[in-house]
Write a sequence for this structure.
């Protein structure tokens, strides 16, 4: 369970909060003091067309079917294009899409079975498709300089030699990735395996993806992009629609949640203060279920969790609320609503043991990394790792293949949160500010949140592919501003 002590260790103190929704009482229990920086309702953000929360049904991203299947591989085709879609009710918005969908269609792959994905760029600017969280060779990593020219295509081959996990694809073309992702180039990639299948978790229509993000719309419904503009992105979207509702049966549901925002950190809780059961994180299942009243997700992070709606009376309306700003509480403090129906038969379960993680080998190398950016109001607009902005011609870290390393990462910014994402490898978080991590961070991770002044220790082993890969802040506007570096595994 995420206790008050764990919340404070994450930096979730009263000063960190800028908005609180219906779960404000829970926040006060965790953070002891209330939302000191909460914005008043309707204040502090540019307003787009008014949308009444919980009037739009939750859509579920369509599953992309392979156009060809062989004994060992599934073949997919995806086209990137500009598309006009209804996001806000009654209005159409131009977005960038994979196969005309916002967010893109979901690929359901299998561990040990290859997925071959041909990406066709029908846009008028270069793109690069990164499978976030995956262990792939350089030629299929989708790095920031390995771009697809307009009118051309590239085939990515994913061997899927890793445990089942909630992964996702997104654009990574440097200096364009921030706007491309913001305008819609992202989609889920759900990797399943036999071990997970045998657990008896909720499945089929009771396993539901939730892709969270925010956006800024002008009065006409056009999506407005401005670099590093967290304050005005106050329309919350789930699976591409604003503040939706979902009709649920009185039984257990499994939710596969992704924070696909550029900058927004979500601290989520149910409006009645009850716990959810987190069962997985970025790299797959946790060793054991982690009951928690709060889910903390920075951009790029994923949470796999179960809610049992059988404990609620039919007709109950249960909100999923957000307790962190910036932005007015009546907008950013609300995410979606669950409308509970009749109880139905349920043979799913959440076992006490979900997976066994391999023992951590002894590390042979230790490194330190400092994340920092020009503070708001300073006049600067750059971001740094170890005092340097990104240079595609520079190798920042050289790593010997097969070694296990411990990386100490510190957020040296005074007011700005960051997170840290590694390509190629999943890591284990050893400690946060010198203390053991709470259970929801005890699994495999590829992205970790750091509030100002925080330090984490990460352990990872480089024993798969060789080559040059990036590591960067996944508050992706910061990455585009230079908070990215390159490692070379030799």
């Amino acid at each position: 369970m995420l206790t008050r002590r764990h919340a404070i260790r994450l930096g979730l103190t009263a000063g960190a909060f800028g908005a609180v929704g219906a779960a404000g009482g829970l926040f006060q229990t965790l953070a002891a003091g209330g939302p000191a920086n909460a914005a008043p309702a309707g204040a502090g953000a540019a307003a787009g067309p008014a949308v009444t929360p919980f009037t739009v049904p939750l859509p579920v991203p369509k599953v992309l079917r392979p156009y060809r299947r062989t004994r060992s591989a599934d073949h997919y085709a995806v086209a990137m294009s500009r598309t006009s879609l209804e996001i806000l009710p009654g209005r159409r918005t131009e977005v960038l899409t994979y196969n005309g969908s916002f967010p893109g269609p979901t690929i359901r792959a299998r561990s040990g079975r290859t997925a071959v994905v041909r990406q066709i760029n029908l846009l008028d600017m270069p793109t690069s498709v990164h499978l976030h969280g995956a262990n792939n060779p350089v030629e299929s990593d989708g790095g920031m300089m390995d771009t697809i020219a307009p009118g051309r295509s590239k085939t990515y081959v994913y061997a899927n030699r890793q445990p089942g996990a909630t992964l996702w694809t997104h654009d990574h073309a440097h200096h364009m990735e921030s706007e491309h992702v913001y305008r819609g180039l992202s989609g889920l990639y759900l990797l399943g395996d036999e071990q997970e299948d045998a657990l008896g978790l909720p499945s089929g229509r009771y396993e539901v993806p939730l892709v969270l993000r925010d956006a800024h719309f002008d009065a006409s419904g056009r999506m407005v992009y401005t670099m590093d503009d967290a304050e005005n992105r106050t329309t919350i979207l789930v699976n591409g629609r604003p503040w939706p509702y979902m009709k649920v049966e009185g039984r257990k549901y499994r939710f596969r949640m992704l924070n696909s925002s550029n900058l927004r950190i979500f601290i989520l809780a149910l409006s009645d203060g009850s716990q959810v059961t987190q069962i997985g994180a970025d790299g797959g299942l946790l060793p054991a279920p982690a009951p928690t009243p709060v889910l903390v997700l920075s951009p790029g992070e994923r949470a796999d969790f179960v809610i049992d709606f059988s404990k609620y009376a039919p007709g109950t309306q249960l909100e999923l609320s957000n307790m962190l700003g910036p932005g007015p509480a009546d907008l950013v403090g609300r995410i979606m609503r669950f409308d509970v129906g009749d109880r139905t038969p349920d043979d799913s379960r959440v076992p006490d043991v979900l997976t066994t993680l391999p023992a951590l080998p002894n590390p042979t190398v230790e490194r330190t990394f400092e994340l920092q950016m020009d503070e708001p109001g300073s006049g600067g607009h750059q971001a740094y790792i170890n005092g340097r902005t990104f240079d595609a011609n520079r190798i920042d870290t050289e790593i010997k293949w097969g070694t296990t390393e411990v990386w100490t990462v510190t957020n040296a910014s005074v007011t700005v949160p960051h997170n840290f994402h590694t390509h190629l490898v999943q890591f284990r978080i050893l400690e946060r500010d010198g203390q053991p991590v709470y259970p929801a961070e005890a699994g495999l991770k590829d992205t970790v949140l750091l509030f100002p002044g925080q330090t984490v220790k990460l352990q990872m082993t480089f024993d798969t592919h060789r080559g040059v890969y990036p590591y960067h802040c996944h508050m992706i506007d910061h990455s585009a501003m230079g908070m990215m570096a390159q490692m070379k595994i030799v």
User: Anything to note?
Assistant: The first strand starts at residue 68 and ends at 69. Residues 1-6, 13-45 have pLDDT under 50 and may be disordered. Helices lie at 4-10, 24-31, 177-182, 194-197, 329-332, 476-480. The longest helix spans residues 24-31.
